[in-house]
Amino acid sequence: MAEVKKSNKRVMTGKVVSDKGDKTIVVRVETLVKHPLLKKYIRRRTKFMAHDPNNDCGIGDKVQIIEHRPMSARKRWHLLNIVEKAV
């Protein structure tokens, strides 16, 4: 039986906002952060460039990305799977 290794790499879920690059997607990830003084939750948005080897993703898809070695100046994430396709 094959052993499954536990990875320490970060996994994030977000929405594809651009798929114009060849084998590259831009994923917007939203996180909730509590304001230290007001104790109110604030939405923070960050964009990550991820490697999509088969050009499977389209704009609006919900995807999971995982940390990976640097592939270019800004691309350090890899497409893990497509959670939900856009309609």
UniProtKB/TrEMBL annotation:
Coiled coil: none annotated. One of its GO terms (cellular component) is cytosolic small ribosomal subunit. CDD domains: Ribosomal_uS17 (cd00364). It comes from the Bacteria. Keywords: Ribonucleoprotein, Ribosomal protein, RNA-binding, rRNA-binding. GO terms for biological process: translation. Pfam families: Ribosomal_S17 (PF00366). InterPro entries: NA-bd_OB-fold, Ribosomal_uS17, Ribosomal_uS17_bact/chlr. SUPFAM superfamilies: Nucleic acid-binding proteins (SSF50249). GO terms for molecular function: rRNA binding; structural constituent of ribosome. Belongs to the universal ribosomal protein uS17 family. One of the primary rRNA binding proteins, it binds specifically to the 5'-end of 16S ribosomal RNA. Part of the 30S ribosomal subunit. PANTHER family: 40S RIBOSOMAL PROTEIN S11 FAMILY MEMBER, SMALL RIBOSOMAL SUBUNIT PROTEIN US17M. This is Small ribosomal subunit protein uS17. It comes from Desulfobaculum bizertense DSM 18034. The gene is rpsQ.
